[in-house]
Amino acid sequence: MFERRSASPLMRLGILRSGALVRANLGAILLAGSFFGFQFIAVLYLQELRGWSAFETGLALMVIGIDSVLAPTLTPRLVSRFGNVRVIFFGGLCIAAVSYALFLPVSLDWSYAAMFPTMILTGIAFALTYGPLTIAATDGIAEEEQGLAGGLLSTSIQFGAALGLSVVTAVSIIATGADGSPQAILEGYRTALWVPVAAAVLGAAVTAIGLRKRNIVQSNN
Predict the structure, then answer these.
(1) Closest listed residue to residue 82, CA positions, set 220, 178, 215
(2) Is the CB of residue 23 less than 8 Å from the CB of residue 84?
(3) Taking a C-beta distance cutoff of 8 angstroms, is the pair 37, 199 a contact?
(4) CA distances from 80 to 71, 73, 83 (A)
(5) Burial class (CB in 10 A: 0-12, 13-18, 19+), 55
(6) Residue 215 — pLDDT band, cuts 50, 70, 90?
(7) Cβ distance 29 to 163 under 8 Å?
(8) How much is the pLDDT for 214?
(9) Residues 6+ apart with CB under 8 A from 12
(10) Considering only CA atoms, which of 192, 201, 218, 216 is closest in space to residue 36?
(11) How far apart are CA 192 and CA 190, in angstroms?
């Protein structure tokens, strides 16, 4: 209420009338929630259930860092050719959903070769989503409010990460129950893995709305 009455509010609420901005922030929340939620479960699986050391776990997850290579090289080219919304939907969130789903059959004796597709696809998905979401969040926003739009996106990512970690932790604990056997713990992890899968699918659905609206505008023109 104070923000509405203030002559110079910390955040002008009218900025939320931008559908592209709202969709970008929802996408960021779901992307971060799925991305960090998955990694949390993967780390627990490798260290707590498989007994891998922190060093071994770091090496296993290192391939996800491919996003630092692809983000400044491949992603801008794809955005230039296909548009940021298509890259977010097809190249980012859809791939993320597939990558997390591939980890669902995880077993007590999975080899790293079985985990690798998820690890590499997760890195690719993040690289193809994070940058384009920034573009989507600031597209059509007045120059003097670009900083505000960027700040909202950063806040959404931080909130999404915290939310994702909280939800996967709660689901894992509830699904495991009082039985502390390795199989029960594994089943808890498997159940919790549905959270990042669902978040990525929901994020893709939110992005698809923007893609549909853009196609309608283009067809009308």
Answers:
(1) 215
(2) no
(3) yes
(4) 13, 12, 6
(5) exposed
(6) very low
(7) yes
(8) 52
(9) 3, 145, 148
(10) 192
(11) 5
d(CA 127, CA 65): 9
CA separation for the pair 204, 198 (Å, rounded): 10
Say what the pTM is. Answer: 0.87
Give the count of beta carbons closer than 10 Å to the beta carbon of residue 146.
12
Helices within 10-83 (DSSP H only) = 19-44, 54-61, 67-70, 74-82
The span from the CA of 54 to the CA of 182, in Å, is 20
Two tokens at 4?
A: 């509405």
| 215 CB-near residues (< 8 Å, 6+ apart) | none
Decide if 63 contacts 81 (C-beta within 8 A). no
- Measuring CA to CA, how many Å separate 34 from each of 16, 60, 83? 24, 18, 23
Higher pLDDT, 4 or 204: 204
Compute the distance between CA of residue 169 and CA of residue 187 in angstroms, rounded to an integer.
Answer: 13
Q: Is-contact 190 50, C-beta < 8 A?
A: no
Cβ neighbours, 10 Å, residue 204: 22
CB 103, CB 118: distance < 8 Å:
yes
Residue 178 main-chain phi, psi, to 5 deg: -80, -15
Average pLDDT over residues 124-128: 89
The residue among 123, 127, 144 whose CA lies nearest residue 62 is 123
